[in-house]
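During the second half of the funding period, the structural biology subgroup turned its attention to how the target accommodates small molecules. The most pressing case was 3-isopropylmalic acid, which had performed well in the primary screen but for which no bound structure existed. We therefore specified the complex as follows and requested a full 3D prediction, including the ligand pose.
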Amino acid sequence: MSNPSILILPGDGIGPEVMAQVTRIIDWFGDKRDLKFDVETDLVGGAAYDKHGVPLSDETMARAMEVDAVLLGAVGGPKYDNLDFSVKPERGLLRLRKEMDLFSNLRPAQCFDALADFSSLKKDIVSGLDIMIVRELTSGVYFGEPRGIHKEGNERVGVNTQRYTESEIARVARSAFELARKRSNKVCSMEKANVMESGILWRDVVQEIHDAEYPDVELSHMYADNGAMQLVRAPKQFDVIVTDNLFGDVLSDCAAMLTGSLGMLPSASLGLPNAEGRPKALYEPVHGSAPDITGQGKANPIACILSFAMALRYSFDEGEEATRLEKAVEKVLADGVRTADLMGPDGGTPVSTTEMGDVILAAL
Amino acid sequence: MSNPSILILPGDGIGPEVMAQVTRIIDWFGDKRDLKFDVETDLVGGAAYDKHGVPLSDETMARAMEVDAVLLGAVGGPKYDNLDFSVKPERGLLRLRKEMDLFSNLRPAQCFDALADFSSLKKDIVSGLDIMIVRELTSGVYFGEPRGIHKEGNERVGVNTQRYTESEIARVARSAFELARKRSNKVCSMEKANVMESGILWRDVVQEIHDAEYPDVELSHMYADNGAMQLVRAPKQFDVIVTDNLFGDVLSDCAAMLTGSLGMLPSASLGLPNAEGRPKALYEPVHGSAPDITGQGKANPIACILSFAMALRYSFDEGEEATRLEKAVEKVLADGVRTADLMGPDGGTPVSTTEMGDVILAAL
Ligand SMILES: CC(C)[C@H](C(=O)O)[C@@H](O)C(=O)O
Ligand SMILES: CC(C)[C@H](C(=O)O)[C@@H](O)C(=O)O
């Protein structure tokens, strides 16, 4: 049997720097735990545009469809800000999400004990925080048609379409309920059913799937504006949150910032399982390409490393090895090892991106 | 000359309770400051539905168009949750916004010194916070067509349309720039221009209006997801934020919760000025109808009272009287007078809704 395959797309900005540490960790699992992967590397985002004139080539797209998991660093940067919409770095990422049909985006917002002081929120509000946001990732206003800018008389008009089908809502709801069963068995669904019909359908379908298939899970519904408030007021009331593509974008970033350490947060984007039960999958840190610190050895590789841990868990069914990696990261943090973004008033040992890779490898 | 006219729409839940205190304050200004208003009261939301079968009657709508300012309490409640979309309490409010063409919704997020401990955020992050969110209120996905739920094959599909014209963006941008000039002269515009064409148009038009008419104001652009993060991380970086209807809904609630005291926050929704330079205007507290505490004398009337202060400032050009009222509220808070929602670990003097009205009148 051949090794499972991974396509690495480091992308732009700090993407390549943080991904370099992940590569070392993948190698470690091959050497020390006999978990071998066939790894190949390719371009996405601005890096792909520079070479191919598009933010994701058809060849790379085809490979992404074939491999067992994709690891992505980050896309975008000021250099590409004025590119035409159709070739912006983000389009590469959106194409991957859409064509791989990665409808379920898992964004844990977890507060690490050693870092609870980093949050702008009071410690008792966030310590021990462990939320999972499940964001629909292949539909909604990100992809709905009609869209674009056109002229009416002598005015420009900008249009996008929020569109959800019943089955699109049902499948992401199922994925949220499944996750909740492995956690605290609670799902809160967020929309604006009071002003949007697409929100009414969202609410109804989530409720129907619940009643028919997951009656054991505790389900509540909340308007997304109230959701933003409640996340700030008392985030620990939540276990799993399920919401659409656009609300998920904003609310998951809000939740991420509650933890105070964006450089720590991974994400998984999952599609439907194939014949062997393995979902199409893309893993990426929640943080962006951070052009301001690119090339300075300052980037925190942990979010990207924890994204690989999610790959171990969700793509390769290696939950124990994932936990091993997560524990190594926790230990390093508890020991006070800190990249620049984690340097707080409490001091700690400052390290570079590579040195953070070193100590995590040592902790493994 | 006749007195300026005010239409009071107390609405549902705690709306009537908090509005009762505002009425006393309006009377005080008539008696003591010779600022007389012609006040009439009518129904909106569930209360209007109960009587008329619609959440806003045509007669009430017509009066709202005629008066100089509308004060609204709150709409909605569990009793109305299962009503058809077209007659939900919220539709009454949305009809007022749309027909009065109240495109500029001003939502201050201000942290009161006496209440800084109430925030879930650390005191140094929020003390002295003073942001003004300007939310577009008459367009975007709230009103765009096509919309609704239809069948495709045997699936339901939910659709809403995000739509902005150039002039809709231009006028709310102007209102943000005007406000900024009276404050710290800084505007941050938020959208998702990286994924939505309507966001691209938004960004372009805001920039054009800036360059042509307000080059003296400092303008920046931010993606809305990053905006949510930055609000949580370091809210004091902002002065005026301008954004669309839906992002404004979520981001202003997020910002409101930073202050820790939702019961304190007013809002103004303004339209175009009439021949005398007076804009169509509706004032309402940011909080909702709070069905859980309705009828118990627990509601905090301050948000509604401060909404009337905004009316004094923006509709009646009585900035000094507005400040007088705001100062009275601040004094009462500094004295430790507290409705139930403001009772914290630091104690304070607990008062009912009416008693809070009493002490504010006394402070005036
Ligand atoms: C980069 C951008 C297209 C993307 C999004 O809006 O989905 C990002 O913000 C995210 O949340 O993954
Ligand atoms: C009640 C509801 C229709 C309204 C909105 O979504 O605009 C409210 O949330 C608000 O922010 O004023």
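Two results from this model are relevant to the next phase. Chain A has a mean pLDDT of 96. Chain A has two domains: 1-108+261-364, 130-258.
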